[in-house]
Design a protein that fits this description.
By secondary structure, the chain is α+β, with helices and mostly antiparallel strands. The protein is built from 17 helices and six strands.
């Protein structure tokens, strides 16, 4: 029977196992192969046993003696050693399962970002890959740096930090797929004026246009479904000196809250430090009270100029028609006007909510 010298393995095997198959097929010993290659018998036996690697010089000799390309031998060797390293790494990571278990692994699996079912070394490895970190310690260091310069827990902290970190990373990953121009403050300010009018459009039509307007000014905008364990509406942050991110969770699922959150985060990008991650959250504080108040005032006035609203309030008789007419004349969603009237105490938080648009997550 003639040996198949064009042998191409279709599964991961050690080069030693392939070499042993060749020797069986050709009915020669390891010692004889070593003699033909000009290498020691001990080395050839160790290669067959997987103890010694196939080095480039040996691969070239095997090519001449056995007829299989040196590239294939070296490829087998590289894949085999990588697989061994992965196996050893997973075993070593088993000691970090307690750390990994604090993260919402079930949610990551539900979103198709992790495989498996349990909390083992492989789960640790996949979690590190999700965060883009090479080791558990480097991942922890990244989180410590983020916490130190970007946010702190509020006194009434209830959200889990691990869930927040996952949600932030989901936004980073989405933002990575959004091509943006370099940030330009004047373009962003101009485009925000166009974005304001989008509040009157159906949300499915508004979101792609909002993403386009933001990207043209150097801001990645994305919606990331919230994760159980955090009470968060949105964040603004700088990913690079030339690219910012506004990330929202659609918390409360109503148009007044959504649009106020967007313009609140936009205000942070325009007015405040690039070193801070600004979180609109019930459980975290990042901005100072003064910065939060400034962002609130800017967003409120940008959405509905307060001098106009005060004039409206002075003659307001409490009808839907008045709110709808005011919103149409000033090209803003009626729900936003209702939200501001409620915030001022002109309406209670139960009045006119039917003028707000409610959202639902797609199945």
């Amino acid at each position: 029977m003639t040996a198949d010298l064009s042998y191409q393995p279709d599964r991961l095997v050690s080069p030693g196992a392939v070499l042993a198959d060749f020797l069986d097929e050709l009915d020669i010993s390891a010692r004889e192969l070593a003699r033909r290659c000009g290498r020691s018998a001990k080395l050839m036996v160790e290669i067959i046993a997987g103890k010694a690697p196939v080095e480039p010089e040996t691969a070239l000799q095997l090519e001449r003696v056995l007829g299989m390309s040196a590239d294939i031998w070296l490829g087998l060797e590289a894949r085999y050693r990588l697989e061994l390293a992965k196996t050893e790494e997973i075993e070593s990571m088993a000691g970090a399962t307690g750390w990994a278990s604090r993260f919402p692994l079930a949610e990551l699996r539900k979103r198709g970002l992790m495989g498996g079912t349990g909390v083992d070394g492989d789960a640790v490895r996949q979690l590190l890959a999700f965060f883009g970190c090479g080791s558990v310690e480097s991942c922890k260091e990244k989180f410590r740096d983020l916490a130190a310069v970007s946010y702190r827990h509020s006194p009434s902290f209830k959200s889990t930090e691990e869930a927040l970190l996952v949600w932030l990373r989901l936004g980073e990953r989405k933002a990575g797929g959004i091509a943006c121009a370099d940030f330009d403050k004047s373009v962003f300010t101009k485009n925000l004026k166009e974005a304001r009018a989008l509040s009157r459009d159906p949300i499915d039509a508004a979101l792609p246009e909002l993403e386009r307007l933001c990207a043209a000014a150097g801001v990645a905008f994305c919606i990331v479904k919230p994760i159980e364990g955090i009470r968060l509406s949105g964040i603004s942050r700088w990913l690079t000196p030339r690219k910012a991110l506004i990330q929202q969770s659609m918390r409360h699922m109503a148009n007044d809250h959504f649009w106020f959150t967007f313009f609140h985060e936009a205000a942070h990008l325009l007015l405040h430090s690039r070193k801070t991650v600004f979180l609109d959250s019930a459980d975290y504080r990042s901005a100072s009270d003064a910065e939060e108040e400034e962002a609130n005032k800017w967003a409120t006035n940008f959405l509905v100029p307060q001098t106009l609203l005060e004039t409206f309030i002075a003659g307001f008789e409490g009808t839907d028609e008045e709110v709808l007419d005011f919103a149409e004349r000033h090209d803003v969603a009626a729900g936003i006007v209702v939200g501001q009237l409620q915030n001022r105490g002109v309406l209670t938080y139960r009045q006119m909510n039917h003028l707000k648009v409610r959202f639902k997550w797609a199945a």
